[in-house]
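Before surveying the methods themselves, it helps to consider a single example record, giving the amino acid sequence and backbone structure tokens:
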Amino acid sequence: MTRADLVHALTHVTVVDATGAPARPDQTLLVDGATITTIGPSAEVPVPRSAAVLDLTGKYLIPGLVDMHVHSGGADVDDERLAPALYVANGNTTVREMWGRPQLHEWRRRRDAGELLGPRSIIGSPLVDGAPALWSDIPGAELGIDHPVLVATTPAQARRAVAEAVDGGADFVKVYSRLEREPYLAVLDEAYRRDIPVAGHRSDNFPLAEQIERGQRSFEHLFGLGPATSSDPERWEAALARIALGPDFYFGSWFTQVGQVEWDAVGDYSRPAATALFDRIVAADVAFCPTLVMHAAIDLPDFVRTDDPLLRYLPPDTPEAWSFLQREVFHDGGRSPEVEARRRVLFDHRRAAVAAMDEAGVRLLAGTDNGTPGTLPGFALHEELELLVGAGLSPMRALQTATLEPARFLGCEDRSGTIQPGRIADLVVLDADPLDDIRNTTRIHAVMVEGRYVGPAERRELLTTAAAVAAEGGVPPVGPDGRDRGEVGSTRGW
């Protein structure tokens, strides 16, 4: 590690700045403290004698990555040497926390005070949901789901929920699927009055086409997109609104019913309706965070591996928790072969929808929903980028969903999101070109977090410590070839 108060000279590196411009070989960057001050051909940039010189010949430089949908910590994974360290080791220099709770604010306080190495964080409120709230009957203490939920069934309760979010220091209000129309609109009105953004799920209880023009800044996941892109949206939106939750695990009951509505609506897909909806999304300047890696984990039966070597970075009981969530919540007790086949088709449709949104100019944000079975802090974002490219985005566009687009969405494009003078020095050094193969984002050599250089040795130490903490003294995470499992790409296929 080198201190953030030094001048760093990153020399002879190929810069992929995420603006959309071609890669620039043999560049030198000067970083003064936490800020990029100079970029130019190495032959033309004088390096100050006092600078800490990092010769990056043969390396590639990208902006720090942003995961716009995470769920960090909880119950037995609240050790700061786990999620915060795994984010940094994987080049995730900023995260958007989608379910707020006090521990996240404490991590942010310590990080901003220089006491904790971790990503910059944008923290949401507790979930604001209708009744019964979808996660209210999950045995949270056993599964690491100890996050609070604010139930709002009236406009007055909705306004109080927004006030609680503001008083609790949230950066935005997180809305959820079962909010009724009037409480949902009250959340938006009160949030506008208090100047706090709203993000989260679409409501099942009135049409998505209306919701996108009411002020919600981003919509998470692709649930419920099918009805709005069908030839008969009134019919399928009404079907969503008729969902009634069963007695055994509300989320599982909801998820099964939403899946059936999605399946029926996909059979009624209309390209003109989809085009019209996406045009309205663009006009409203609303972002979508598709979280394809979460959908893959839920839709595709072979995606989640309880023998994944990366599980060494999570507590030993994680496979059991994942199996429970898959079986009892996401699969609602089990799936027939017919349902499994349908889910594969649905996933293909989701990928096509993401490609169509990108082509239409919808702002897409890379997010993972880590905490879902099969997704790990830091690692999952690289899988999301790979899935986005698999859906049809170019490597540059996929990279921008985790760099430039989050910066635009968060209103800090002049300070972050690209590699340019005046930007914060959040950087990732790669061993190979991500524009040749997006999976090269996993080939991380080093990371810079606000000018603090985390070199190969310290990065390895972060991963080794995380594995030991997760296992309560387990062995370092090395493979048979002696390489750290965190330094190699995903072995999944889809």
The first strand starts at residue 7 and ends at 15. The radius of gyration is 22 Å. The mean pLDDT is 91.
